[in-house]
What we know:
Blueprint: H1 3-10, E1 15-19, H2 21-30, E2 36-40, H3 52-63, E3 69-72, H4 74-79, H5 87-104, E4 113-116, H6 117-120, H7 123-134, H8 138-144, H9 162-173, E5 178-182, H10 186-195, E6 205-209, H11 225-231, H12 248-257, H13 269-278, E7 284-286, E8 296-298, H14 301-310, H15 315-339, H16 341-348
Parallel strand pairs: 2-3, 2-5, 3-4, 5-6
Antiparallel strand pairs: 1-6, 7-8
Helix pairs in contact: 1-2, 5-16, 7-9, 9-10, 12-15, 13-15, 15-16
Amino acid sequence: MDTEEKMKLVMRPPSQELVTEGGLRELLDSEQSPRHYIGFEISGFAHIGTGLSTTLKIKDLISAGFRPTIFFADYHTWINGKLGGDLEKIRKVATGYFKHCFIALGLDESKVDYVLASDIYDAEYWKMVMDISRNTSLKRMLRCITIMGRKETEATPSASILYPAMQAADIFTLGARLAHAGMDQRKVHMLAREIAPKFGFEKPVALHSRLLPGLQGITRMSPTEDQLIDAKMSKSKPDSAIFVHEPEKEILRKVKKSYCPEKVAEGNPMIEYAENLVLRDRPLLVERPEKFGGDTEFSTSSELRKAYSSGSLHPMDLKTAVGRELSAMLMPVREYFDSHPEYLQELNNIKITR
């Protein structure tokens, strides 16, 4: 596979932004198996934005020759007060339920390196965190705390100031040449790129995936950063998210209730899920009686958006098609956890926080 083919794989949906195209091309030309990294807080059940979207992109990256690392950020989760701030619970869920969600989706340990953050944190790491902090203004750090899923204006513990420096240090410690995350993590990637030369590292290429909207949708045409944080899928709002292990009946119930205004494609979660999760790999089949247009296949986003915006595709038909596809894509996870119920049990008695 040549470099251009690999670049197309990297930029397939749900990818939204690459910083920079030239940097990625140079990386692919110079390294056979460059290191990739994506980090996760362990804050509860994995939804399709966390699990399914990430898995699809990691499979693209594997095909393009990358060696991925899924990084379970236990200290970061602890700082952010998730899972009740219980570090042992965080670690248990990280290496149990969370890891096995990705394995169930097809990312076994022969394909991906799974790393628990605290397992690699040593004196040199903490020295790097302090050194990054010494070379970054307090104002810049405060701007970066939105990577924690919180607004700049929210009251946060003072330990939050360490969070961006730790995330940048994670990238350098892992030797990651490609830093991968949702668009909400962009600020820390830019910080890492800016300071990398000061520490003798190559600037990491930054790949940002589209944030999938929650089932309640984004109601403004040009949402602010804070509104995007509020509108993305949230574990603390169960009906805003489809969790990867959920029964088919629950998936279809949530999809049926979802925000999907007639003739409005922009900010419509059903359109977004179709574009970023289904159409990247196969057509979306809409099944309906002949009197309502008959069965129709949509192969591209533009075809789907045009049909929906014109009114020739009804919201309920779209919901039915997308719900069916998502349920089919998540079937391996349901079957996996049916056979391994102990991993789901870990979270049953833990309050899920934002």
